[in-house]
Amino acid sequence: MEHTVPYDPRPATGPEPVRVGLVGAGPWARTMHARMLGAGPETVLSAVWARRPEAARETAAPYGAAVAASFEELLDRCEAVAFAVPPSVQAELAVRAARAGRPMLLEKPLGPDLDAARQVADAVAEHGVVTQLVLTKRYHPVTREFLRRAGEFEVTGARSCYLHGAFRAGALATPWRLEQGALLDLGPHLLDLLDVAVGPIASVRGSGDPRLWSELTCEHTNGAVSQASLSGSVGLDRARTRVELYGPAGELTYDTAELDHEECWPVLRREFAAAVRSGTAGPIDAARGLHLQKLIAMAAGGALRTSRDTTWR
């Protein structure tokens, strides 16, 4: 049954924080989404809904948030929705949230495959709702300074990697990640950085097994060529994300080894709240997510398997 309660999308007056409902209560929902949204002052965590009520209560309790008995109740209790669930679940529920007129904080990838991602982006465009993607690194000041400098740097070629071992065991070794591998999970981050730092990507060729190691070759509209290595299954002590740009002026490097990702969350929260209040999405939105998913599908030769993972909390 679809949500039918009328919703007034006009921005509220004054500095009232945005009331955000959270879908999901797994490790990422608890340690990032709930903590970020509950910290304020731009947002408050108003409600949590998950398949397991006990997990929802555990996630909601530190912030005094309500526990919704259904997705429809969550929509009634919030102005905007944040998703921390597998891609297949997000894609289905995001379409319903768009129909209800709710702004959304979306995880990447938008969906488990290109068709699902397109349905989300189409629903967002049809209903005119504000969206923002949790492309974590894009909210860090160091990343933004690198991209600013890259805009002034003539690039001939680039090398990049996003590598870690989190798919081997632990909270991130979820069924959809184990099935689809690094291309669908880590690919959006790295392709996004290359698409901005080097120039718009015209084509992507992929090789390897995404569950072990993917190697991507990107051709950019400005004639530059870049390489991207992706893996979530290698034995590293910590994640390694690095982008190296090369050109006539020499080298420009971006490395996340010393980045404190805690600096990302206040920026993400502030910009999402501002977008909701203004009614205008920024550049890191559902349309951007669809663009990245098209690149992923191109890299996979359109053959990414569709995961119907429902093991979420």
TrEMBL record:
Residues 18-132 form the Gfo/Idh/MocA-like oxidoreductase N-terminal domain. Keywords: Oxidoreductase. Residues 164-252 form the GFO/IDH/MocA-like oxidoreductase domain. Pfam families: GFO_IDH_MocA, GFO_IDH_MocA_C3. It comes from the Bacteria. The keyword Transit peptide does not apply. The keyword Signal does not apply. This is Oxidoreductase. The lineage of its organism: Bacteria, Bacillati, Actinomycetota, Actinomycetes, Kitasatosporales.
